Amino acid sequence: MDTPQDVLIDRVGRTGRITLNRPRALNSLTHGMLETVRTALDAWASDDRISAVLLTGAGERGLCAGADIRAIHDDAKLGGAGGRAFFRVEYPLNELISRYPKPYLALMDGITMGGGVGLSAHAATRIVTERSTVAMPETRIGLVPDVGGSRLLALAPGELGTHLALTAATMTAGDALHCGFADHFVPSAALPALLDSDDPVAALAPLTETAPASELARQSEWIDHCYAADSVEEILERLRATGLPEAKEAVEQLLGKSPTMLKVTLAALRRARALPSLAATLEQEYRISCAALAHHDLVEGIRAQVVDKDRDPRWSPASLSEVTAADVARFFATPEGGDLRLPR
């Protein structure tokens, strides 16, 4: 249930401050929270008293772990109307952030995943720390990267984004910078100076330091080779053939994911590379997400990971060979209630 304090909206000097304020739930997003953020951004866009916006998360653990997936699970079991309404608020908000008319700074300190990426990684200024853990982990729960994440992943260097999307692997600060999810590294010890400033845009530059190196970048040769394949089955074959322990671990990660969602994710990323804009990508993601709400694997994946926590999802179909091209194509069809149409 939303409370008026789930998002804190205030002003420090000429900076509009948005604080996601559900720390016990790792600031996971509800429909009402998204509407509160949207209302504030719409008002500040034309408010001459506001020169910049700063997004942060309450608590010590992170900015935001994503949507309230338990609520999505319960709604999907009832037909998914609430989930579709949630996406119709969330995705336009992601698109607005990408073209916001004033400096929008997102502090991606700690855990920043899923919907948290949607509120931060499309910002003009994206800040990570040594505590940052950034991911699009949707395949863990029988879903596909959304909130514009499929575009960010598709445009990451080489095939790093494909690896991240399919395995649901996490990024360190150095990885996030290398993959295009962040712009600046600020040590966590320096954050108070940024947060206490009434001009965070000016305060940022002297606080920025060189981030630790990206481990993903070091592994790019085998990742690029394996994930350039045209099918999930061939990706698995190439991973096994490398003989590398990191590739073996990737195989194990893939085999635990929904076969359907792995194939849909790969198709979504390949299509996203050819799409002209974030808006077009979000429209594609809306189709996929609506289809996922009606698919067995989303409810089952959340059940296994979050509700019962037995970590033993029973996917249907259970194998890659059972997932047909027609099965994948259904996720790109016009959803019930029509398409999402965003500004171009």
TrEMBL record:
GO terms for biological process: L-valine catabolic process. Keywords: Hydrolase. The lineage of its organism: Bacteria, Bacillati, Actinomycetota, Actinomycetes, Kitasatosporales. GO terms for cellular component: cytosol. Coiled coil: none annotated. The keyword Hydrolase applies. This is 3-hydroxyisobutyryl-CoA hydrolase. The keyword Hydrolase applies. It comes from the Bacteria. Residues 16-332 form the Enoyl-CoA hydratase/isomerase domain. It catalyses: 3-hydroxy-2-methylpropanoyl-CoA + H2O = 3-hydroxy-2-methylpropanoate + CoA + H(+). GO terms for molecular function: 3-hydroxyisobutyryl-CoA hydrolase activity. CDD domains: crotonase-like (cd06558). PANTHER family: 3-HYDROXYISOBUTYRYL-COA HYDROLASE, MITOCHONDRIAL, 3-HYDROXYISOBUTYRYL-COA HYDROLASE-RELATED. InterPro entries: ClpP/crotonase-like_dom_sf (IPR029045), ECH_dom (IPR045004), HIBYL-CoA-H (IPR032259).
